[in-house]
């Protein structure tokens, strides 16, 4: 896992993020803290439990809390997924890594609760603390707060963890896209203004070259985010007819777009009728059927590997609306996207 190219403090509004974090803490009953890729907190602690507050205020015990946080965060990064573990007081804690495009940006540290089931899964206690009389005395002073810690079932914990993971990943993805687009826009606009007369007033409109360039960048960023969600995002069709290769390259690089035969023919410097004829000869399918089948294959990957809604999958792959996407999916797979996902997860769980 390489060092992050982004800084959480720069790309997200921490004030708004903390309000959301407080709300999530109330809903999930978990204390929540967000840290950057160095492990340094970038938010306040949302609803830190009184027991944990007391422990962390003790100079001797707080060092074990810090070791737990560090070890839990490292393990989450190593496993590339949320890590549920026990702290030195056998309290449930979770480290949820924020990883975008294989870049570790930071983590959500959550937990400070106990499990309801007596037969809870075997979880690792990441830091052990040697017992002593002084520690026991301090625990007795805080025992009432310990007994008041929130109690959840393991299933409830995993559902809360999934909610935090999906929401944080989505928000940070959107923030990165906006942040990068704005930076590129500013750079190009500055370049344009520098090249123009000092007294000229520059108005950005759809015919402006800078405006068109920004639109292109936004499309590329959107395509890149979709590619990271697909298991085989880097795959591309290698045509035996080199004349057609520009079209295939464009299609695989712009999965989020709706493709037209005339556009692809123009890209290959061919007439639409000739492009259609050699495309069908090359693939064994008409252009419209090939594109539809390909997009349904991509949709299946997203349904299998992500928790994106059917509407979001439809939008991400450039379908005009979810109804048309469902109709097309059913045409090729003989079942709806929702049923396909349910069946796939059922088979995977066996």
UniProtKB/TrEMBL annotation:
It comes from the Bacteria. Gene3D superfamilies: Homeodomain-like. Keywords: DNA-binding, Transcription, Transcription regulation. GO terms for molecular function: DNA-binding transcription factor activity; sequence-specific DNA binding. SUPFAM superfamilies: Homeodomain-like. Transmembrane segments: none annotated. PANTHER family: ARAC-FAMILY TRANSCRIPTIONAL REGULATOR, HTH-TYPE TRANSCRIPTIONAL ACTIVATOR RHAS. This is Helix-turn-helix domain-containing protein. It comes from Paenibacillus lutimineralis.
